Amino acid sequence: MTEAALEIVDASAGYAGRIVLDAIRLSARKGELTAIVGPNGHGKSTLLKAISGLVPVTSGEIRLDGSRIDRLRPDQIVERGVIQVPQGDLLFPAMTVHENLLMGAYANSGGAAERLDFVFTLLPKLKERRNQTAGTLSGGERRMCGIGRGLMAGGEVLMLDEPSLGLAPIVIEQIYEVIFNLRREGRTILLVEENAERIAEHADMIHLLDNGRIAWSGLGAELMARPEIVETYLGV
Amino acid sequence: MDVLIQIVASGLTLGAMYAVATIGLSLVYGSLNMLNMAHGAILTLGGYICYAAIVHAGLNPALALLAAAFVCALVGLLIYFSAALPLLRAENFETNIFIATIGIGSVIENLMLKGFGPYPIPQPLAVDGQVVIGNVHIPLQNVFILGVAIVLMAAVAILLQRTSTGRAIRATSMNREAAQLMGVRVGRVYAQVLALSGALAAVSGIMISSIATLTPVMGADPMLKAFIVCVVAGLGNVYGAVIAAIALGLLEAATQYVLGVRWSFATLLLLVILVLIWRPYGLFGKQQVVRL
Questions:
Q1: pLDDT tens digit string along B84-127?
Q2: Which residues are paired to B133 by β-bridges?
Q3: Nearest residue to A196 via CA among A185, A183, A210
Q4: N or C: which end of chain B has fewer CB atoms below 10 A?
Q5: What's the mean pLDDT in B51-61?
Q6: Which residues of A touch B183 (CB under 8 A)?
Q7: Cα–Cα distance for residue pair A43/B73, rounded to 1 Å
Q8: Is B131 within 8 Å of chain A by CB?
Q9: Structural domains in chain B?
Q10: Is-contact B28 B17, C-beta < 8 A?
Q11: Are residues A136 and B183, on separate chains, in Cβ contact within 8 Å?
Q12: Closest-CA distance of chain A to residue B182, Å
């Protein structure tokens, strides 16, 4: 079995005394695509925020390559190589696409030129739009820019929070083609997605998050073979 | 024609002073959502430190200016660590820091009153001579102020646009959480912005006191005008603030000539009211046009 890059060990987290995540235990193995699926409002985004240090972990541990990161500041977690592409991309709207991508390399500027070439090769639309302000991009282009900005960090683990949210089906296909290509290249990806069907075939491991707890874990094919789980938790 | 030259020369000088006073205020609001009510007191402190450095310590004017900027940058840092940082962790930051900085400004003003007395003191950093354009004699001091302001504005623009630190400041002002996810240490950005704002306030205070006089409460009027510029430009919009400052300086100079000095401030306030009715976010406000 591949070594775990990111381990979440009985971690609980929440906002202002309200527990959203309750004793979560899962891992993202190196070079694999690990997916978190589940209904809206059940803690998927909070989990990524807790890993990134934006939401405090009240108990348990989060480890990267065996070292605890749950007591670190968000910038220190990024420096260690855990990069998040947040939901709704959260670009800097008044900055150009190029500046947004450079911000991705803020914590790790060494090799940024090579990574920029890689991003422009992977996402050629961004090269065309490099001098355009991010606020004027289309929804799909913004999402591409968000992923490109995440890749510019050159981190060890790339976390993507619902990259398909609010996009047209054809754009979603393009976005997922990019993500699956990254998986084939051996990137470690932790992906949050509401639609289990979309990623079932490609995910190495799927965890179903329900009411802040891991309700089920297994392979994508196993999940799709359990229609009662899919229907109960995901409403498909 | 001579009248026009006179108005433009006075207006640009006023606008340049307002711009330097406003940039810091605008940067702080843009990054922290913090209205720094101690800005006027810091501005005055800069003027007094320059005065003391030249008259009492015997420093040359350039070093005195740098010393004033340095001390006021430290005051900015002190405000961050003593007031902004603890209040950021609590609710109602905007209201609490507004009140806290009124208190800090009052303390600084009273310290200056105790240290330098209530009477006006001339600022020794002055440039003698004048340039003549047509029949208009423009004091070299005004040209000096304009030159310093242009250099400072260019330096701030280069910092914000061309450096990694500047991009971090802009990113933090656009979206704090996204900036954190890029590895920006926002606490450090806040401290940098308050230090920069303090240094700019010091230079502004020196320029203003060089064409007026030093008094412990001299910062109140420029701070009020800097707030007016900020509101007209759109709170937190640095480049808009520079344009608005120059425009308001020209308007003030024109109003003073046409209607008299007593009407200039009333005209500025009327303009603020009209701008807020027309565009509540200011002329260059933060509302972004985003394609869906």
A1: 999 998 889 999 999 999 999 999 999 999 999 999 999 998 88
A2: B136
A3: A210
A4: C
A5: 94
A6: 74-75, 78-79, 106-108, 153
A7: 43
A8: no
A9: 2-278 (1.10.3470)
A10: no
A11: no
A12: 5
User: In whole angstroms, how far apart are CA B42 and each of A24, A163, B114, B188?
Assistant: 50, 47, 16, 21
- What are the tokens at A99? 């500046």
B85 touches chain A (CB under 8 A): no
Identity of the residue numbered A205:
M
DSSP state of B243: H
Q: What structural domains and CATH numbers belong to chain A?
A: 33-43+81-234 (3.40.50.300)
Higher pLDDT, B264 or A63: A63
Amino acid A161: pLDDT: 93
B209 Cβ partners below 8 Å, 6+ apart?
Answer: B44, B47, B50, B51, B123, B218
What is the average pLDDT value for chain A, to the nearest integer?
A: 89
Q: Which amino acid is at A11?
A: A
Q: What secondary structure letter does DSSP report for A56?
A: -
What does the alpha-carbon distance between residue B33 and residue B103 come to, in Å, rounded to a whole number? Answer: 18
- Find the CB nearest A103 among B182, B289, B290: B182
* Of the partner residues B171, B177, B291, the one whose CB lies closest to the CB of residue A54: B177
Query: What ipTM does the predicted assembly reach?
Result: 0.89
The full length of chain A comes to 236
Tokens of A222: 């196993």
**CA–CA separation, A160 vs B86, rounded Å?**
33
Q: Could you tell me the pTM of the whole model?
A: 0.87
DSSP 8-state assignment for residue A194: S
More confident of the two residues B58 and A199: B58
Q: Report chain B residues whose CB lies below 8 A from the CB of A138.
A: 291
B183 CB within 8 Å of a chain A CB: yes
Here the contacts of B85-92 (C-beta below 8 Å, separation 24 or greater) are: B85/B187, B85/B190, B88/B32, B88/B190
Within 8 A by CB and 6+ apart from B125, the residues are B50, B51, B54, B61, B64, B65, B206, B210
B91 phi and psi angles, rounded to 5 deg: -80, 170
